[in-house]
Amino acid sequence: MSAVTVGFELPSKEFQITRESLVRYAGASGDFNVIHWNERIAREVGLPDVIAHGMLTMGLAIQVVTDWLDDPSALVDYGCRFTRPVVVPDDGVGARLLVTGTVTAIEDDIATVTLKAVCAESTVLGKATARVRIG
Amino acid sequence: MALNADFVGRSYPPSEPYLVGREKVREFARAIGVTDPLSFDTEAARSRGYADVVAPPTYAIRLSLAAVETVAVDPDLGLDYTRVVHGDQRFEYARPIVAGDELICQVTIDGIRSVAGNDMITTRADITTTAGEHVVTSYSVLVARGTDEGSS
Q1: What does residue B131 show for φ and ψ, rounded to 5 degrees?
Q2: B41 close contact with A: CB closer than 8 A
């Protein structure tokens, strides 16, 4: 990876998020907040429908980076803002998340990857960046 | 509703040790669609220099958010936890979490502010092994959405 330059685009990934994904993630993460599985309560608090856990979206998005890395120890940091909810309708299809990553800076042996996560034509994560050691 | 600013800088006692289970790592990895054998196959993990299966980077939230929650529900803080959403999250890694790690988590309240009627609290959770090795630090911003009309 030493040949990586600014502007390099990592292989993108696409994810399908269904109600089943949310149930699985709730169990695996221990986050049982009702807005991630109960449509009635989600609507009561003003959401259009059940929404995905922000941490699920964040966990999916970083795979663009970890799939590209040879060794997960190279990950230095990873952060994002949860700017828009990923709405997951109970229609058998759910939500489609497309994640792309671009190297936007290289300093010393650390590359900054800026991630873009798009669902229903909206960017759902803000300032999503991961820094990785490439030396 | 204003939060109690006296809480800024407050550190809490470390959580009880959390033993990272191999099946929990596999379950978490499966739930987010990870395919790398590193998170499932102990032999694959060992051949790549890890003691056991490797947890995906966001696994740390299992520990940090639970620890932050115990702090955030303190009535003296004044945070209405029913209106709380996760606004922002960042991890700084010393190394990946691996099955068999025994971890403790210590929470500090880094900041409290109010923006456009929303209360925001910034927390830092330092995750170390019980032997004192730093593994990951998790920074979370929790936002209690204001009840005023027009706030987001």
Answers
A1: -85, -5
A2: no
